Amino acid sequence: MSDAVTALLAKHEVRLDPALGALFAALPEGADLGTFRLIGPEEIAERALRWALSPALLPVAEGGSGDLFALYVPPEPGAIARTLCVVNPETGVYAPFASIRGLAAWALLVRQAQASLPAGPAFAVADLLEETRPAASALAGALGLAELLEAKVNPNAQELAARLSELEPACAWACSLLSSAESSATAAVDLLSPALSLATFSAGLMAQAGQALLAAGEKKRAARSLLAALSRLEPNLQAMPCRIDEPDPESRALFEPLRPVSLFKSLRSLATELTPEQRQQTPFLFLNRTLAQREDLLLEPAELIDQARRIGLKGDLPGSRWALHLGLGEHVGDPAASRPLLEELAQVWELAGSRWYSQRFRALVSAPPRANPLGTRR
Predict the structure, then answer these.
(1) Are residues 268 and 249 in contact, defined by beta-carbon separation less than 8 angstroms?
(2) Residue 327's pLDDT band (boundaries 50, 70, 90)?
(3) pLDDT digits (tens, 9 = 90+) for 33-58
(4) Is the pTM of this model over 0.70?
(5) Considering only CA atoms, which of 87, 67, 74 is closest in space to residue 17?
(6) Is 377 helix (H, G, I), strand (E, B) or coil?
(7) CA 45 distance to own-chain centroid
(8) Parallel, antiparallel, or unpaired: how do β-strands 80-81 and 15-16 relate?
(9) Distance from C-alpha of 161 to C-alpha of 171, rounded to nearest angstrom
């Protein structure tokens, strides 16, 4: 990483996985593996604003299909950003993918899978492999993945996920995809466990676990998982990792986001499985009260800010921030509604001691608005 970016992140108490430095050292700026291209270190912070991404996301690479790979930056000062997410830059919806080493392994496995595809006028396999060989060799050497340079890989997602899970058992994408294809509900839950222990912020993984537990007949655990999914920050900007290549049925945009209203309806049917203390948690109370009065979560910003402040005055500052994040996710693409929420979030994160989140939200106030191709997502 460049000295300027290192100084910027240090100022805001953001710590990066050292593997990111190895990644940038192995691949010069713009080096293309055919699967992703690194964003120049000096552009990273600027790109995050250009795409109006959540402050939780620090983009480091562009995917070959137009998506992004971004480090998830935890809100706690001094926490290490270790997990890469895959992001739809048009909508800001994201899902955990893998560690930095996991991304490198995935890129090398995809490259080897491409070697199994038949060559044709529009796809010269040998030329592609030769063009990407220097970058692939440098990447494999830097991250201890030399054995993948000659690996035999069939070009299908399930095999890629299985191979990747052998190299990185907690790879969120691999765990989620393998779980989604598992016929045994109990086994499906077990497959998600390693990823859940690493990507603890992921509403998508929690929601997928809740659905699998419900299918297994474990209603109490399912209810806890669904509540945990809804309690994560900005659940309506997150997706299940296994769904990142599936278009939203309403908008046709890739990365179908979670829908808190639908999730809460499932949770409300299991409310008796929750403890009284769990039913008193802010996400349950807020969603239960709001959806008893209306069919969506599109509250007016002033009303939402008032409710969030009341939650904070009762001593639940994390719950206050959660409500504001939820409201902002519902108003994606609406600059007039988003602006007061962004300003309020900048203030509450400053009070929480998170310089990075506070400054990112302040910068987003003046960032160009992003169109909302998701449309109404309730």
Answers:
(1) no
(2) very high
(3) 777 888 876 677 677 767 788 999 99
(4) yes
(5) 74
(6) coil
(7) 17
(8) parallel
(9) 9
* SS3 category, 238: strand
Q: Tell me what the mean pLDDT of segment 26-32 comes to.
A: 70
Q: Which two tokens stand for residue 12?
A: 């805001």
Axis crossing angle, helix 301-313 with helix 335-351, rounded to the nearest 10: 20
Q: Are 248 and 226 in contact (CB under 8 A)?
A: no
Q: How far apart are CA 149 and CA 137, in angstroms?
A: 7
Residue 39 per-residue DSSP state = P
Structure tokens at 97: 């993918």
pLDDT at residue number 23: 87
CB 372 within 8 A of CB 334: yes
Token pair for residue 267?
């949770």
DSSP H helices, 123-281, are 125-142, 157-167, 172-180, 185-198, 203-215, 219-231, 260-268, 276-279
User: How many residues are there in the chain?
Assistant: 378
Measured between alpha carbons, how far is residue 331 from residues 286, 342, 366 in Å? Answer: 17, 11, 16
- Rounding to the nearest 10 degrees, give the CA dihedral for residues 336, 340, 343, 345: -110
CB 370 within 8 A of CB 342: no
Side-chain half-sphere exposure of 343, counting CA atoms within 13 A: 9
- Cα(234)–Cα(229) distance, rounded to whole angstroms? 10
